[in-house]
Amino acid sequence: MPQWLGAFHQRISIADLAKTGEGLVAGLAKKAADHCAYLSDQTGNLPLQPVVSEAIESFPAWAAVYQTPNGRQVLRYQQQRHHAEAPFIAQEPDGLIQRWKIHQAIRDFFLVRGFLQVDTPLAVPCPGMEPYLDSFPAGSNYLRTSPELHMKRILAAGIEPIFQMGPCFRAGDIGSQHREEFLMLEWYRLFADLDHIAQDVAALLSFLAPFSSDPAYFSQELLHVTCAELFQQFVQIELTDHVTRKPLRNACERWGVHYLEDDDWDTLFFRLFLNRIEPHLGMNAPTLVTQFPASQAALAKKAPPGTGLLPTCYRFELFIKRIEIANAFYELTDAQEQRQRFTEQQEERRKLNKPVYPMDEPFLNGLSSGLPPAAGIALGVDRLVLALLGRSSFNQVLPFP
Amino acid sequence: MLKTDQFRKKLKIEIDGEPYIMIDVDFVRPGKGQGFVRTKLRNLITGSVIERTFKSNETATQARVMDQDMQYMYADGSDYAFMNTQNYEQINVGADVLGDAVNYLYENMICTISFFNDMPISVEVPNFVELQIIDCEPGIKGNTATNAMKPAVVTSGYRVNVPLFVENGEWIRIDTRTGAYSERCKKPEGR
Question: What is the interface pTM, i.e. ipTM, of the complex?
Fold first, then answer.
């Protein structure tokens, strides 16, 4: 080891080296498109002369440069990170830095808009009552599948607007765009409805556009389209209720979509949605799918029924280039109706032989304390990064997939 | 029966009495609703590709597809006779099942035949086969530099373009994936 390396505690940034012309800098040595090598840290780039870069056999590699008025010395630390059979990290450093800069930009976006960043427990007694979500046991609790119930308790205490970016866990969800552990962003506003949240979404996407491989796409106005319109356009049927299965079965037959005799209405809806509709969503501009069937309200308020029309709820989903990114609710604030929905979900979990979680009484107390009109959204950050970087599989973007 | 959580690439399943191989499998859960498994399936008989979305916990029947090394014997009209090298049983395979493989057959050639419910559905030949030219124009000596080609017929009856320098009666190697001439070669042992 060269003696000058003992001076590592005198390391300066590349930006400072440009000013002083002398000192020790360290960072990742990379090759640019023109094959010229350079060293980079968070402050800038230092071009390496060919004679210096020859000391580095494979890029990128950790390197340190000691510059004096008389010249430079280079020490290479590490090489061939991807030749190992079990790579210690799955992506190139540039992609990972991009990912974490996007995370930082998301926090910046909310902080400058006056949102308070909150945190809520990961291990909870009631991880989410949705019948089809499976959670991981954690001691006597479960890992949360979503932070929404705690976020709404914070709202009920009068603290708003709030956001949180943190991990959620869903056992068994593994696919090209699903992981059992994933990063969720949620934000909530009081005295707000879905229009406010849609404005937030549009502003967030254009704020993040500079990180994208396709900035023009992310700076556009959002397209709005209802579920009923999508079924008219791509399935060529009218959705008039969320009970009658025959028209959906006929549509499955007509379009060659596989279905089962005992599929319920919502299952048939999803089969058609996944096969006929989703491949078209968000291809030209970020798209909000609105007015979901009332049977898929989850924690959203239901819309007043119109005659002969599909009963709907105040909920939208954001799609970017076919990828489902976010799910927003005009929140159900009626504690009694919420208790009723939880009871039904408990019953369904019992039927499906799944753990039945206790009623989340503190949450229901929060609602019955008088929660003002509120709206919120849950956004899959890993998928947003995927969409921004123009990739299609988590294997291409996650550091530890 | 196979459940959706056992689905993976290369799994062979039966749908409406036909065998399919999974070429793509992906889990998707729209919203927080029930999960689905999207698959791309290739029909092992027709080669056509379909997409099919299964509900989580839906089941599929595993297709009984077996591969067997068979020795080519002779052609009988549009049927081709093969012998099982282990038990010496003989079967006839139709030209429709052989597909392009019919171009590369020679006596005693070993092919891999896939059977679905004991019916032959496809015949795999090696990526390269050596065959003898039985008809072509005389070779032009020294002409190895140009890309010019001339038609030739090999023992299987297959017509293939070969470089001008190749002589009638010579052995050549053919890439069965493209059907194109690859190079000249020596007469293989035992042929």
Answer: 0.87
Residues of B in contact with A173 (CB under 8 A): 27, 29, 35
Contact A12, A24 (CB under 8 A): yes
Chain A nearest CA to B99, separation (Å): 28
Give the number of other CB atoms < 10 A from CB of residue B175: 13
Touching check for B72 and chain A: CB below 8 Å?
no
User: From residue A18, how far is each of A10, A26, A224, B150 by CA, in Å?
Assistant: 15, 14, 50, 67
A121-135 residue pLDDT tens: 999 999 999 999 999
At residue A94 the predicted structure's pLDDT band, cuts being 50, 70 and 90, is confident
Summarize pLDDT for A141-167 with one digit per residue, the tens: 999 999 999 999 999 999 999 999 999
Which pTM does this prediction carry? 0.85
Whether A384 and A184 have beta carbons less than 8 Å apart is answered as: no
B16 and A CB contact within 8 Å: no
Flag if B34 and A267 touch (Cβ within 8 Å).
Answer: yes
Chain B residues inside the 8 Å CB shell of A257: 53
- Under CATH, what is the fold of the domain B128-185? OB fold (Dihydrolipoamide Acetyltransferase, E2P) (2.40.50)
Its CATH architecture, for the domain B65-124, is Beta Barrel (2.40)
Where are the domains positioned within chain B? 2-62, 65-124, 128-185
Residue range B117-137, pLDDT digits in tens: 989 999 999 999 999 999 998
What does the alpha-carbon distance between residue A128 and residue A120 come to, in Å, rounded to a whole number?
14
* pLDDT of A239: 94
**Which residues in chain B have Cβ-Cβ distances shorter than 8 Å to A296?**
31, 33
